[in-house]
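Today's session is about reading a structure prediction critically. Students often jump straight to the picture, but the first step is always the sequence itself: look for stretches that repeat, for charged clusters, for runs of hydrophobic residues. Only then move on to the predicted structure, which in these notes is written as discrete structure tokens rather than atom positions. Here is the chain we will use throughout the hour.
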Amino acid sequence: MRLHDKVAMITGAASGIGKEIARTFAAEGAKVVIADLDLAGAEATAKEIGPALGVGMDVTNEAQVDAGVGKAVATFGRLDILVSNAGIQIVEPLDQLDLARWKLLLAVHLDGAFLTTRAALRQMYRQGGGGSIIYMGSVHSKEASPLKAPYVTAKHGLIGLAKVVAREGAEHGVRANVICPGYVHTPLVDKQLPDQARNLGMTPEEVIKKVMLKDTVDGEFTTAADVAAAAVFFASFDSLALTGQSLVVSHGWFMQ
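Below is the predicted structure for this chain, in token form.
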């Protein structure tokens, strides 16, 4: 098992991509901490996959982040992997976007990534170094789409953060990388479909075919399992040869 006895914290892991990563990490031998705004959902997922711990966490709340990492270390003794996955989506034309909604999305994606990274790094450094920090970016870390200004901005920002963490963490053996999925059919995507359809004057089915999947090579959604496989690859790659990088998992949407 590639993650035997590693301790991994995954944010936003009560459902969707985060839950699939948690399940896959557990199958690879990791002890998993499910961190989510939905405490009941986090605890239910932890019971489902075990050995795991569910913790309630608003990633924009400094005290909750530090307490959640502290509970993880108190339970499992260390922290080896952080997957910063928690996120939200807002679909709206830029000229109609309220400042409060802009700030909310950036807070979840960027403030949350900063706070969880800082707490994880402090622990990784204390325990003698070594570790992997993985950010959940998007094809929108590389490419822009209409109606998603704060999301595209935040996802681009995660690549910059990962590069800094890769530089600063290197002397402690800590790696940082970004996974950039295409559209994954999750509740987050389902929630944005009506907004995109309304703003673009299309049916939800047309949005899927003509917007979400039009630039893929096969017209298929990326799966949560695809993303989880990339997360295992980054988490288990035990060398600084692979750090400060971003990997696009998108059925060919955006090729580098």
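Discussion point for the tutorial: The mean pLDDT is 96.
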